[in-house]
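Ticket #4471: structure output looks truncated?

Reporter: J.K.
Steps to reproduce: submitted the chain below (658 residues) through the standard prediction queue, then opened the result file.
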Amino acid sequence: MATRTIHFTVNGRPEQAEFPVDCPAQDVKDLFRSAAEAGPHDILKLYNPKGNIINISPRLEANDPNTSYKLEVVAADCNSEPLGVGLAVALGFDLSAMEKRLQALEKKIMTEAGEAPAVVYEMKKQVDSFREKLESVEHLSWLGLFKELSGCTHKPSPFYHKRTLHKTPDECEHVNNKFLHMSSLEVSEEVRQYLKTPTFDNWQWEDAEIMVLLQVMYTDLDFVATFNIEQDVLQLFLYEVYRRYNNIPFHNFKHCFCVTQMMYGLIWLTDLRSKMDSIDLLTMLTSAVCHDLDHTGYNNAYQINARTELALRYNDISPLENHHCAVAFEILEKTESNIFRNLTMEQYKRIREGIIKCILATDMTRHNEILNKFKAILPVFDFSNKEHRDTLMMILIKVSDISNEARPMEVAEPWLDCLLQEFYNQSDMEKLEGLPVTPFMDRDKVTKPSSQTGFIRFVLFPLYMELANLFPCLEQHIIDPVRKALDYYTEMEKALEREKHSRAQSDSTAKSKDTPHTTAHTTPNTPHAASTSNTAKSKDTPHTTAHTTPNTPHAARTSNTAKSKDTPHTTAHTTPNTPHAASTSNTAESKDTPHTTAHTTPKTPLAASTSNTAESKDTPHTTAHTTPNTPHTASTSNTAESQTDAGPDVSKTAPHKT
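Returned output as attached by the reporter:
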């Protein structure tokens, strides 16, 4: 059986361990634990000759006495005599006594409660998990150890509306100090691999940590070594970038990181390192870092309509994107933050040209132009063709810039909340300043799902599908999540429509309640009289009757009743002996109006009487009469939207005209 021999020291004492190459990991750890005379709760750390912490596992590389590893007990049980006595002297109390007291309390809890509280088990579980993580990672990394890299939970959206637009000097200094302190830490391999995936959850990481991860990207793509980028220059460049992103809901430093992280992931997923040279990759990553520098939260349409300084400076041509480029090269013009300062003039010129092309490509007004150009070259795409590569670089930064829906929903949805907050802020400002309101930003017209369904169908899908045609491996990484997002927001939109319809029905039912018995009569002996009663939008109308009474020669009588509900005893009469009289009663939105009457006096040949009333609710005994014996008199009574008129027999009568 093949074995492996490991030489190491414990407290300066040389030791040697031998185990089979297929030995279980736990057996190897127990072997080293025995050599260190450590207890079951002690934590062991093994260092290689360079001083780096390495994992205790069967995969340890065999060595010789000259390259011995160093084994240390970095956390020990307080009952161990040397440690307990030393701490007791240093701290001024007896740790052994405290340990016994804690054990007694634990026994008391077990005795009284029958079992330890759930919180105790949860704490023990967390401690065991942390111990296991400490013993399994190769490097002691604060970033790698304290982050939960799976099982994402929904994070609240960070809104910035209560903060100043620009970061304060104190805020920047605080973040920079944390960044510099953490930048010397090794990032665990688990985090490095996670950083290459579209599922990366940005909400777990603070700004200083994000700067560390950006530094890792430049390092892992070999830019630091290939282009001789000094660490302090890279750190100052990242700090200046952080400082120039503003405190706004969406286009902030976290968005910069998300776009850069997606670009970084696409480079690895599509194996672009074997297809494009390092200068193009450096151009794309730096473009992603700088693509929204100094964004103020108002898009190009606002800049142009409001005639802002940016719109005037750049003649209404992509004012924001031109500004982002200018700020980027303003940072790069400073020697101390110029990560390109060791490049040749030709290399710098090429990178500058590429960054400008990439950032200007993020202007969505150019979306169709760039996509159509890519579709045209796709059947004959050639990585050795500079024009083809330039177009691909523009497509990749566009995909990265609008890639939130390709992430897990618990990561993507808070970003949508942030985006809508920024959109609503702009539309509110446009209304306030009397500017044209951008339709997809209007809080009175746009809902969360409606903002996404069309965008996914007509913008994201066509763009992503074309990129996946060139790189089929992206189907599962970005196409499938976007399909799920479309289904999610489509269902949400349908649910909102159902709720809206249900609410409208409830309001309609409540509005037309308790209005029964609507009747329209044409009384006897009315030659050549036309009487029309139109009642609209009435529902559930019991006992609604239209009568033409006896002895009414040449009388036309029409009663149109629709959707009237519970309308009691509403009557329209044309009284006897009124030749050639036309009476029309139209009921319009009259509410709670009892005993309202309009009269035209007796014996009115050729008299026209019109009473217009619509959508009457709770209107008992409302009557329109044409009375006898009034020659050539025209009387018009229009009653609309009368609401709860006090007292019976409140009448509105037109003046007499002869």
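Triage note (M.O.): checked the attachment and the full token line is present. The chain is about 45% helix and 10% strand.
Status: closed, working as intended.
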